């Protein structure tokens, strides 16, 4: 079962949000995802597989054929009714964005494609420079969310998604480092970040999450990617 890691597009955001709602307690509005992708379009990625039987979450196709504009509108309206966090300000404007991305990124999107994981990243634009800190927000990436569907875990997908995003942060934005937060109880994610990806613990932030669980704030230096021979790939088969 080949898995493809490719750059995320606007057409993927609805499925990315669904994956998040299915797997994680930290959920975000659709506008938050859209903000990431429109502002930093090259650093978020999805993991996909080809599934001719079940590609129902593919927004752009119906039964292997390109969806018409009316069908796209119906899909978007249906999702808006079912998902309280899906509240684009203007459905028609979203449709235009999806169509524009579909034309621009047609080489990425397969008609039988099924998204099984994602990583959502940005530059750290929500912090002011702190003279007592060695973190410069303007040159610091931030991994907002990482998720893989349960039936596709333990295949190395999460690590590959992270590596693509970290390399893209360095290559496209010259990010010096990257930070993220992880629940203290999430042993699998902590193991990935600390033992496989070499993140270090900066601090423990008490009551960071909505349910008041503490979070490890972790950081990774991205300068090591300067010595690598290969840049990140937009399409990576694993």
From TrEMBL:
SUPFAM superfamilies: Acyl-CoA N-acyltransferases (Nat) (SSF55729). Transmembrane segments: none annotated. GO terms for cellular component: NatA complex. Residues 62-223 form the N-acetyltransferase domain. One of its GO terms (molecular function) is identical protein binding. InterPro entries: Acyl_CoA_acyltransferase, Ard1-like, GNAT_dom. It comes from the Eukaryota. This is Related to N-terminal acetyltransferase A complex catalytic subunit ARD1. It comes from Hanseniaspora guilliermondii.
């Amino acid at each position: 079962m080949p898995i493809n890691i490719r750059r995320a597009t606007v057409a993927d955001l609805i499925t990315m949000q669904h994956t998040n709602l299915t797997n994680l307690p930290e959920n975000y509005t659709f506008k938050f995802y859209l903000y990431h992708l429109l502002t930093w379009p090259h650093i978020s990625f999805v993991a996909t597989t080809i599934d001719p039987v079940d590609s129902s979450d593919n927004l752009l196709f119906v039964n292997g054929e390109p969806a018409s504009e009316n069908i796209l509108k119906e899909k978007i309206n249906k999702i808006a009714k079912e998902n309280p966090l899906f509240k684009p300000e203007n459905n028609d404007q979203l449709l235009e964005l999806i169509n524009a991305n579909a034309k621009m990124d047609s080489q990425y999107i397969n008609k039988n494609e099924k998204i099984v994981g994602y990583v959502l990243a940005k530059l750290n634009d929500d912090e002011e420079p702190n003279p007592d800190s060695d973190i410069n927000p303007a040159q610091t990436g931030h991994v907002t969310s990482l998720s893989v569907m349960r039936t596709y875990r333990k295949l190395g997908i999460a690590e590959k998604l992270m590596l693509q995003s970290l390399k893209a942060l360095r290559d496209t934005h010259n990010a010096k480092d990257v930070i993220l937060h992880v629940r203290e109880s999430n042993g699998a994610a902590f193991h990935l970040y600390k033992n496989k990806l070499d993140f270090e613990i900066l601090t423990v932030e008490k009551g960071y999450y909505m349910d008041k669980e503490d979070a490890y704030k972790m950081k990774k230096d991205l300068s090591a990617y300067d010595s690598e021979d290969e840049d990140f790939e937009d399409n990576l088969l694993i």
